[in-house]
Amino acid sequence: MYDKISSSEGLLSRSSSPSFASEEKLEIPRRRNAQVLPKTTYILIGLLVLSLIANVVVVVVLNAAISKANGLLGDETRNCKSQTKLYSPAQDALEYKVTKFESSIYGGETEYQGPPTEHNNRLWKQTYAHMNTHITEEEAKQLPNKTMPEPPYEGSGYLIVLNVFHDLHCIDSLRLALYYFLDDQWNSTYNPYTLFEHPDDALWAKGGRDLSIMHLDHCIDALRQSTQCNGDITPNVYQWSEKWGEVRAWATVVHECRNFDNIVDWAKSHYSRLPFAFGDGPAVGKCAWDDPWTCLLD
Ligand SMILES: *[C@@H]1O[C@H](CO)[C@@H](O)[C@H](O)[C@H]1NC(C)=O
Ligand SMILES: *[C@@H]1O[C@H](CO)[C@@H](O)[C@H](O)[C@H]1NC(C)=O
């Protein structure tokens, strides 16, 4: 430490002497000060060093406090540049899992695809069956937005829906609507758009609110925001395809995903028995119209 001070002193005095020499003739008062200057320089250097030490101490202490705070917020913030992180009561359910995506096309289809069947309807419904959850008052107080308490009954709390479940409910609505439009009963003159004056009315009346154009339009935009929010930066790749005889883009790569099973487990353990759903969609066990496709299963 002392060595550093004396060496920087040396630098100062060496570099300052030529400039004093050049100013000698121009500024006489400066010359008188020049005798006093070394003393004040020592004091200034001393203060500078003290303030540097103080700065280092402050930075070290602050860094320790910030990393401690990040540790409390969970794994997720470790590699995150942003220091802002909103509270979620399900943050402890977060776990990262490397997952390979399916191509979902040309033989890579999953069980969730194809025209609605009892089997795939059940699979879809299972992904968001526990979307209505409740949390404690203490947890509710930490939310950035307020939420409603449930009516009092044993185990009641404050109602929330984790957004991933709203997204899945939206995708399921879009899936059912897509196939609903492909139904044999529709033709060029007789279809959900022409049945009523307004297309919203047609699908709403036939398929329930969830299948209305208004709801589907809402879903597409909710999914847009969610996808942009989550910003999956996993690189898809280009590789030669023997089958196609050309270089093609591949989506069957590995992603670092939030373990969905863990989130479902959290939802199951916080499930609210209230029959609330988004909008006025069919309750579990009911069909949206006289068609088993849309029956929401337990
Ligand atoms: C949630 O909080 C934001 C920020 O304060 C506010 O703009 C928004 O209206 C709130 N939404 C609800 C539903 O409370
Ligand atoms: C369309 O379907 C309706 C109802 O089944 C039927 O009355 C009508 O003749 C069909 N129109 C055409 C062009 O096939």
From TrEMBL:
<keyword id="KW-0812">Transmembrane</keyword>
<keyword id="KW-1133">Transmembrane helix</keyword>
<dbReference type="Pfam" id="PF11807">
    <property type="entry name" value="UstYa"/>
</dbReference>
<feature type="transmembrane region" description="Helical">
    <location>
        <begin position="40"/>
        <end position="62"/>
    </location>
</feature>
<dbReference type="InterPro" id="IPR021765">
    <property type="entry name" value="UstYa-like"/>
</dbReference>
<keyword id="KW-0472">Membrane</keyword>
<comment type="pathway">
    <text>Mycotoxin biosynthesis.</text>
</comment>
<comment type="similarity">
    <text>Belongs to the ustYa family.</text>
</comment>
<protein>
    <recommendedName>
        <fullName>Tat pathway signal sequence</fullName>
    </recommendedName>
</protein>
<dbReference type="GO" id="GO:0043386">
    <property type="term" value="P:mycotoxin biosynthetic process"/>
</dbReference>
